[in-house]
Amino acid sequence: MSLLGDIPWDLVVIQSINGIVTGMILALVASGLTLIFGIMEVVNFAHGELFMLGAYIGVVVLTAGGSFWLALLSATFVIALLGAALQIVTLRPLLGRDPLTTILVTFGVSLVLQNYALWQFGPVARKIREPISGHFALLYLQYPWYRLVIAALSAALIGALYLFLRYGRYGVWIRATTQDRVMAEAMGIPVTSVHTAVFAIGAGLAAASGVLFGPLVGVNHTMGLDWVLKAFIVVVVGGMGNLGGSIAASIFISLLEAYASIWVSPSQAIIFSSLVLILTLLFRPTGLFVPTPK
Amino acid sequence: MSSTHGKIYWTAFLVIIALLTVAPLVLPEFWRRFLTEILIWGLLAMSSDLLIGYTGMVSFGHSAFFGLGMYGAAAALLAVKPPSLGLAILYGLAGSAGVALFVAYFSTRLRDIYFSITTLIFAQIFYVVIFTWTEVTGGENGLSFSRPVLGLAGIYTVPFTTTTLHWFILFVVALSYLLLRRITQSPFGMVLQSIRENEARTRAIGYPVERYKMIAVMLSGLFAGLAGVLYAVQNRFAAPDFVYFLVSGEVVIYNVMGGIGTLLGPIVGAAFFLGLREFFSRVFPYLAAAFNLPQIAEFPYLIPVGVIFIAMVIFLPQGLLGFMRRWLNE
Hints:
The complex is a heterodimer.
Chain A: H1 9-40, H2 47-63, H3 68-91, H4 99-121, E1 135-138, E2 141-144, H5 145-167, H6 169-179, H7 181-186, H8 191-213, H9 223-238, H10 243-263, H11 270-283
Helix pairs in contact in A: 1-5, 1-8, 1-9, 1-10, 2-3, 2-4, 2-8, 2-9, 3-8, 5-6, 6-8, 9-10, 9-11, 10-11
Chain B: H1 3-26, H2 29-55, H3 62-79, H4 85-107, H5 112-132, H6 134-137, E1 143-144, E2 150-152, E3 156-158, H7 162-185, H8 187-197, H9 199-205, H10 209-235, E4 237-238, H11 245-258, H12 264-291, H13 302-315, H14 325-329
Helix pairs in contact in B: 1-7, 2-7, 2-10, 2-11, 2-12, 3-4, 3-5, 3-10, 4-10, 7-8, 7-10, 8-9, 8-10, 11-12
């Protein structure tokens, strides 16, 4: 009996595709998180809650009769505005204080938002209908096209973010502020507004991923918690504040969890990604994809 | 330390202990349990203050130590007949010490937020293990067991009532406070505080900073495990919910509300938080009835409590007891 023969290749193929799909969503969540960390050293504990609220806004728009794409757009804009408001009220006063205080404040924000969702929408999970219901044959499965659309849309959003940061006028402002806050301010960049804008962008990305991911699982008030933990793992493994690294790490971690759940239950799969985190911290504390450890 | 300071401090200490000793005799059943619970959560928060306030490391993983103390006690109480309090404490401390060694070894290599995130993820690993390993831990339902008796087997024992339980827990918490206070004032504690103030300089002087941090995490984990044992004995069950990272978050909230680096502050913070919780979980149903607004009856108490917490981080970062931090540590 050979070891290779024991591997269920059909499951491996299916799980590879599943892993890439979740990986792209995770990358979308994590890119907002890492952008926010990179620019203002804020560890945004409330990121998962923004993801969850985005999904709920999607539900609200859909029940009001809007289309899925309208839901996606409105969730992104509403949560981006909410993010901007949250940043101005809770994080702006903390500028210049110990970065640890930002964890505390965003933890408080996450408690408030999560309980608000529980109160407003109740404990029963809501469902978002898939905008595309077609299937294609994958081995013996009927695989939904929608999952591939999510992966493509996430990739497109991340690509747009990259192009914006690389070539956009405001994107250059953001990168300049990340590199050197004081120098950027001296050059006339309105650093405080850049901070608010970045938080809003991150929040909007989280909300968009919430709506995109909504059809795959139910929408409920605790869905953000799992995601924020996974996004933390990704952001540390990929290197804090490193956009490319966190995208690579998202795919890597999601594939790993997908393969692991062939053999163990999906809820135990997070142990494997935690092991990757431990190994990364032991051997490459600044992240797998950061070339020179400081 | 001036002698008047010592006199005032110890008089106040004894007065508070005396008040807490008398309290269960006059309070109704519900508030008696409430007070005992504050002491247990206070001990947990105090243990984490050793890291947050004195070493400058914010742990988001204290639920793991607390939970393992709980499940350790559960193991002893279920395996050994008749249930023995001493063994419960011993097993609980062993459980939390094991976890603390593991967490300390890996997480102390990191600083600041990286430390916080790592402790959080570690706690989550233990949560997943406890939640899914149903044959041993009872999974989602947890374990329930009977309460041991107080005292030394064969010499003198009394059964636990809410009053004797309160006294026992008060004794353990007061003793832990004095021990932790002694630790923070010892040369070892001074090194921890110098790590908080300037890690690079402490290392340059020649102190093995990593070893000190590891010992600090382990000590903190032991006291947190002790709190877990007390909680298990009080409530006669162990559940995975207490290992979930939201518990760790609440512990950090107690610290920040009460005032870090004071040891007593976290207990005050726990009392403040739990008091607010009781207040808001009563006031909304009351308002709903008074003003005929049924939709706010179910309003979650964590929303106003969370807002108060956020406001305190921004406007009162020293916490409630922050103003007497220096005095308490003298």
